[in-house]
């Protein structure tokens, strides 16, 4: 069987790096991995982790999901432009009260997390459709299904991906293409460190006192602890993603951590949408009265 070409975005750290290395280390040598990143100055960690697979099963390439020309140049450099599996992983977190975030900052989050995927597909989907083969794998988030306090814009960017993919999956089926959304819960990566660092130095003067205190004393104070205790590792998420990539009939949605299944199930179980909001409200403000409405 011919090797499949796998292009992954955002491989300078975290899930992208772990997945690129895992795919390249496959003992059956089933894949050629194009591990991309926007800033090649950050390639050392990936190259070290790839070890002997570098230059054979894994090649490092530049790709910025916010730059159409960089996507085109990267895709054109792949033999016959043949990408069998596209893993859209590049993304950024963003936490805090919206009063303290600028529209430009919000646009960067949407531009990376949502339009980044759209740009990739505009370049890669037409070839997949012509070949009538291809698998599009998106590292999305449980926050694409259920929003969480102080993640308003990040959750919106991940919800946008869900709506886009639900629509596209119908067309994809017509062309025999597969589309899979990977939905991790918290994962300890640079994502967590960067979001916490930005949150800690956020100017909260535009928010009212109650909201500023809630963000500092409830959200930021518990953030590290919640991420440390309820998290998965990037390697764990990569392991699950490899299974989805190699599956004969890959699922449309795949949650990497069953811990979050009750949260997402509740969302679908209550058509009024009140229960998840009620539970999160109690979780944050009234831990003592945490129970489902009957
Ligand atoms: N960590 C978590 O808790 C969770 C993460 N996710 C999702 O997983 C994905 C990977 O994140 P994770 O590994 O955790 O975090 P990391 O911060 O470790 O990795 C994010 C990667 O995306 C890259 N990136 C950011 N902007 C661009 C861009 N414009 N073009 C190309 N690459 C870019 C970063 O590059 P650079 O180093 O240059 O910034 C980095 O390589 C994201 O989509 C995130 O939303 C989903 C659920 C939970
Ligand atoms: C910190 C914190 C909470 C949980 C945060 C979680 C669970 C974040 C998940 C982030 C993810 C999944 C990011 C990537 O996509 C609660 C429970 C709201 C209570 C207040 C403090």
UniProtKB/TrEMBL annotation:
Taxonomic superkingdom: Eukaryota
GO terms classed as biological process: estrogen biosynthetic process
PANTHER family membership: RETINOL DEHYDROGENASE (PTHR43391:SF9), RETINOL DEHYDROGENASE-RELATED (PTHR43391)
Pfam families: adh_short
Organism: Apteryx owenii (Little spotted kiwi)
Active site: 154 (proton acceptor)
UniProt-annotated binding residues for NADP(+): 10-38, 64, 158
Entry's Gene Ontology molecular function annotations: estradiol 17-beta-dehydrogenase [NAD(P)+] activity
Residues annotated as binding substrate: 141
Name the record gives this protein: Retinol dehydrogenase 8
Record-level GO cellular component terms: cytosol
Keywords, in A-Z order: Lipid metabolism, Oxidoreductase
Protein family: Belongs to the short-chain dehydrogenases/reductases (SDR) family.
CDD domains linked to this entry: type1_17beta-HSD-like_SDR_c
